[in-house]
């Protein structure tokens, strides 16, 4: 998921640079400047100016190009995010019965629909392999796999409504509420509404997701040759791209939280309430009847609904100010763990074994 997120953000940066390139070219070749340009490159610049379309047509072409590019990047990011969500749930499940209820409920019908439509959608998956995989799921075989591509559809664009449905079908519900409570979206809301109290992000801030629906709507207009209400690409550069970057980080944080929570239902153990938290990255506990060591994962979960769950690698263990590589279940003394940042005493803490969440750990 890290690579999907990084690639998407990088491509948004490239699109932003392209927009600024267009704006620079407009300024350089502006026909509003009277007379011919005199410079070492005058001949080339004047030739460009002579062959430029009228200003309105030029702006329309640029606008259409940027909208199609922005939507195309977003669509691929959402498809990859949904696909990786299903794959990750499959990877951590010991058996098909351990998969989220929504995935098990939808797997049969989605896979059959995919088989019926796969030729129209230009997919190249082998039907026999898909049917064999579906049989393994339904018969409870340990080497099961779920067809992740069946959980997103090309029958509709990615409006906010379809994003909510696709993620809900993939085991992640209440996506808007959860997105609003991620650290990234909280940062964006503070930037967008500096004079409002955005802490906790209540329902009134859900209008921020109108960007998603407006992009899908404008993409449809452009695709059908009806781009009449164009907006300045300067606004897309200054506002829209920033939103979609923060939206992507927030999607990642929600998926990450859901994967961690689901993993906790199958493995890991509770640490009990912390004795104290220092500098938000050192947490002290009473002894617990479990063994763990450096490199294992400290998970922190809020008791509040829709709040994100975080996880970080344990980088230091101490008992009585002495460093330890591990703690055994026979330990009878309080201990301190250092891992990541952002912890507080009102969180629930758990430990997962090293490697359990290798693709989702930051720090």
How does this model look, in words?
By secondary structure, the chain is α+β, with helices and mostly antiparallel strands. The protein starts with a helix and ends in an 11-residue tail after the last strand. A five-stranded antiparallel β-sheet has the order 2-3-10-7-8, with no helix packed on it. It is built from ten helices and eleven strands. Helix content is 48%, strand content 11%. A hairpin with a 3-residue loop joins strand 2 and strand 3 (282-285). Helix 3 (55-92) runs parallel beside helix 10 and helix 8 runs antiparallel to helix 10. 33% of the residues are buried. It is globular, with a radius of gyration of 25 Å.
Task: Please give a handful of descriptors for the protein shown.
five-stranded antiparallel sheet; 11 strands; alpha+beta; 363 residues; four-stranded antiparallel sheet; 10 helices; globular; 11% strand
């Amino acid at each position: 998921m890290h690579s999907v997120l990084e690639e998407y953000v990088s491509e948004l940066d490239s699109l932003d640079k392209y927009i600024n390139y267009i704006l620079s070219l407009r300024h350089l070749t502006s026909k509003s400047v009277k007379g011919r340009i005199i410079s070492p490159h005058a001949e080339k610049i004047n030739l460009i100016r002579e062959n430029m379309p009228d200003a309105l047509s030029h702006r329309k072409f640029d606008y259409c190009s940027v909208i199609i590019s922005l939507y195309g990047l977003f669509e691929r990011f959402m498809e990859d995010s949904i696909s990786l969500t299903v794959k990750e749930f499959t990877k951590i499940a010991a058996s098909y019965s351990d998969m989220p209820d929504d995935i098990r409920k939808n797997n049969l019908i989605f896979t059959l629909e995919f088989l019926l439509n796969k030729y129209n959608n230009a997919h190249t998956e082998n039907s026999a392999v898909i049917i064999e995989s579906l049989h393994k799921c339904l018969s409870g075989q340990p080497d099961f796999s779920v067809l992740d591509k069946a959980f997103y559809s090309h029958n509709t664009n990615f409006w906010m409504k379809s994003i909510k449905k696709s993620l809900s079908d993939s085991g992640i519900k209440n996506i808007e509420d959860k997105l609003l409570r991620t650290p990234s979206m909280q940062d964006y809301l503070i930037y967008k509404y500096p004079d409002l109290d955005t802490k906790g992000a209540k329902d009134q801030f859900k209008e921020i997701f109108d960007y998603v629906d407006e992009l899908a709507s404008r993409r449809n207009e452009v695709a059908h040759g009806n781009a009449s209400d164009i907006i300045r690409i300067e606004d897309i550069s200054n506002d829209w791209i920033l939103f979609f970057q923060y939206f992507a980080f927030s999607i990642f944080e929600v998926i990450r939280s859901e994967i961690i929570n689901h993993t906790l239902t199958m493995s890991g153990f509770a640490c009990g309430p912390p004795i104290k938290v220092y500098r938000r990255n050192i947490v002290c506990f009473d002894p617990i009847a479990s063994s763990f060591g450096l490199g294992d994962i400290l998970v922190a979960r809020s008791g509040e609904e829709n709040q994100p769950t975080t996880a970080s690698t344990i980088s230091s263990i101490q008992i009585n100010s002495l460093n330890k590589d591990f703690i055994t279940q026979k330990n009878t003394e309080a201990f301190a763990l250092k891992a990541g940042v952002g912890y507080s005493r009102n969180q629930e803490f758990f430990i997962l074994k090293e490697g359990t969440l290798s693709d989702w750990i930051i720090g």
